[in-house]
């Protein structure tokens, strides 16, 4: 039987319907009801959906119109990112009581390397149970967790018993688990890639494993090597506590399409103000300003400008955004504007993780 040598103990914690759950926790009238954070029945896109809403097919990134069509009783709630960030900090504080090797992926999920941990607990499974219990008792929200020997497997496992559950993939179970797993459940394989794999006769991990490295590279390019490794339980990426932030942005979808640059500048002022707040909270600045424009026909356009110095001030951000706005004539009315900063002045720090053999 194939096994993967030299294991870490990795936990992936994923909050259950985080934004929607926070709204239901703060407003008891929303408990047990289908809730969509963001969007509206007329405009916008759903940022998150409660499990009650998901039963009707409501999903994140779905238009508000389609969400309402799927679920007539859906309740739309405006997002409160400051509140979500506040809760996220409390959750991470719990994580850091167990290990300093915490890699946040977003406000609602993170990897933890507990190979060696502050509690001296040899069981990653028990640590995950304790963390989930504390999040529920101290904050009032439920979380799911996946536990295994690397980040890829932990991420796949965390989705296995959602919501409010956890799954451990022990070292001796890895190969069989992956062989039986539907290819669409492999983290990182999206709908387009899954469809391409189906057309190639790849429906399960076992089918994927049967394909040679040459075949996978020929049909899936550079990703072929990644697929070849992960189906064998090989994924050597360490938990990076100082994971580099690549960009910070803010955007707005409008109730009425904008056809005049004068009105767009007014909206950009508000967006630049929000972006400044986010940059200050991260204590960073950036050199490249990108203006995002979504037209009424949903086509997307981006325009970028790189400055010779770092900026984080809203006036400078707005100045660059306005220059990009007037760079060329608008081809249609606009339904969304966004500004983001790239080339940030963050430092990349490397973490060397010790690999040990252990029992889960």
TrEMBL record:
GO terms for molecular function: damaged DNA binding; DNA-directed DNA polymerase activity; magnesium ion binding. It is an enzyme of class 2 (transferase). Keywords: Cytoplasm, DNA damage, DNA repair, DNA replication, DNA-binding, DNA-directed DNA polymerase, Magnesium, Metal-binding, Mutator protein, Nucleotidyltransferase, Transferase. Gene3D superfamilies: 3.30.70.270, 3.40.1170.60, 5' to 3' exonuclease, C-terminal subdomain, DNA polymerase, Y-family, little finger domain. Mg(2+) binds at residues 14, 108. The keyword DNA repair applies. The active site is at 109. GO terms for biological process: DNA repair; DNA-templated DNA replication; error-prone translesion synthesis; SOS response. Residues 10-190 form the UmuC domain. Monomer. HAMAP family: DNApol_IV (MF_01113). Belongs to the DNA polymerase type-Y family. This is DNA polymerase IV. It comes from Flavobacterium supellecticarium.
């Amino acid at each position: 039987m194939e096994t993967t040598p030299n294991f870490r103990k990795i936990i992936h914690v994923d909050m259950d319907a985080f934004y929607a759950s926070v709204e239901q926790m703060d407003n008891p009238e929303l408990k047990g009801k289908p809730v969509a954070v963001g969007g509206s029945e007329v405009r916008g896109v759903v940022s998150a959906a409660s499990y009650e809403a998901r039963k009707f097919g409501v999903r994140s990134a779905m238009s508000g119109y389609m969400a309402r069509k799927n679920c007539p009783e859906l309740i739309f709630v405006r997002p409160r990112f400051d509140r979500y960030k506040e809760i996220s900090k409390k959750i991470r504080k719990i994580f850091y009581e167990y290990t300093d090797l915490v890699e946040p992926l977003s406000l609602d999920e993170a990897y933890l390397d507990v190979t060696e941990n502050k509690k001296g607990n040899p069981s990653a499974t028990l640590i995950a149970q304790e963390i989930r219990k504390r999040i529920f008792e101290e904050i009032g929200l439920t979380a799911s967790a996946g536990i295994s020997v690397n980040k890829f497997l932990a991420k796949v496992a965390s989705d296995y018993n959602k919501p409010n559950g956890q799954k451990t993939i022990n070292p001796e179970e890895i190969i069989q688990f992956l062989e039986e797993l539907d290819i669409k459940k492999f983290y990182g394989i999206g709908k387009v890639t899954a469809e391409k794999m189906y057309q190639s006769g790849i429906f399960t991990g076992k089918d994927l494993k049967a394909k040679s490295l040459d075949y996978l590279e020929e049909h899936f390019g550079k990703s072929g090597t990644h697929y070849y490794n992960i189906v064998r339980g090989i994924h050597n990426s360490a938990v990076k506590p100082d994971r580099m932030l690549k960009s910070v942005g803010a955007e707005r979808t409008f109730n009425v399409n904008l056809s005049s640059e004068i009105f767009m500048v007014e909206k950009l002022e508000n967006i630049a103000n929000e972006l400044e707040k986010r940059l200050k909270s991260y204590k960073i600045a950036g050199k490249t300003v990108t203006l995002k424009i979504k037209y009424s026909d949903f086509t997307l356009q981006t325009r970028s400008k790189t400055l010779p110095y770092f900026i984080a001030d809203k006036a400078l951000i707005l100045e660059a955004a306005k220059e990009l706005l007037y760079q060329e004539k608008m081809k249609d009315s606009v339904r969304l504007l966004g500004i983001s900063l790239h080339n940030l002045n963050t430092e990349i720090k490397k973490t060397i993780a010790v690999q040990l053999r252990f029992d889960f």
